[in-house]
Amino acid sequence: MFGATLALPAAAQDLEVPFTLDWRFEGPAAPYFLAIDNGCFAEEGLAVDIAPGQGSLDAIPKVATGAFPIGFADMASLIKFIDQNPDAPVIAVMVMYNKPAFAVVGRISRGITSPADLEGHTLGAPPPDGAWAQFPVFAAAQGLDMSRITVEPVGFPTREPMLASGEVDAVTGFSFTSYLNTVRLGVDPADISVMLMADYGVELYGNAIIVNTDWAAEHPEAVTGFLRAVARGVVAANEDPAAGVAAIAARNPALDSELEIERLQIALRDNILTPWVLENGLGGIDAARFATSLEQIAMTYAFTNTPDAGRYFTDMYLPTDGSLSMR
Length: 327
Prior knowledge:
Elements: E1 15-20, H1 30-37, H2 40-43, E2 46-51, H3 59-64, E3 70-74, H4 75-84, E4 90-95, E5 102-107, E6 122-125, H5 130-142, E7 150-153, H6 156-165, E8 170-174, H7 175-184, E9 192-196, E10 207-212, H8 213-218, H9 220-239, H10 241-249, H11 257-272, H12 275-280, H13 287-300, H14 309-312
Parallel strand pairs: 1-2, 1-3, 6-7, 6-8
Antiparallel strand pairs: 3-10, 4-10, 5-8, 5-9
Helix pairs in contact: 1-9, 1-10, 5-13, 6-7, 7-11, 9-10, 10-11
């Protein structure tokens, strides 16, 4: 018939998923960018846009308010946030740093080689820093006298420069960030001590992928697809760290690729692909360890509500098709 039009079904559109990191576009973020460039997110029907963050505590309120449906944040800080905001629609769904990167990074030439050496010295700590947030647990586990440690609040941009210049003797930070940034400033690696809090009695989990629970309830398959794509990104980054950093450099041409490859390799080795993950797969938790971590948080933090592990983490969105295996 003249003038008739044939109605065709609209093409399916990928679901737009803004994702906020905890920090800048650096080496450890490679799995997410590889998941974009390798088509992993697209295969799950997701159009993911990645935004940088401003510290480990930054993503939690962004996701809780719904500004971002998914983010990357420190688990212990999330626990405290939920305790203080029990109705906040946010929960962790995938642990990425099975062994947290929280560390104290010090100068050996300034007398910092062990936790006890911090007493009588100056510690630089950015107030929003996830490692600083967990420092009281580390200090309690090591029996440190906090009154004998001079804590200097510093900004993220000035943290490592102040360590390099000797204005502070040690700093809190992520191991792979503060160590490499200090080396980049010309400090001899042999003069740098890196104390991973996890090696000194801290049983906390590190950063995890968190979701807005209202959004997740509406899009459960999207959450699982997102996590599956991230797991594929981890595998790809481990197989070819240089390609992972190249994916970041495409978004940040000023990137020091050689430095970021090393940063990525440290994160994969020390924090992501731990012996537990290689045995049990990426993303989950050990219930007994998680219970201990809650007890450790309670050493220095007064819970308003009775701690409830199920309120802070759920494995209901983790894929069950074997994609989390890292062997």
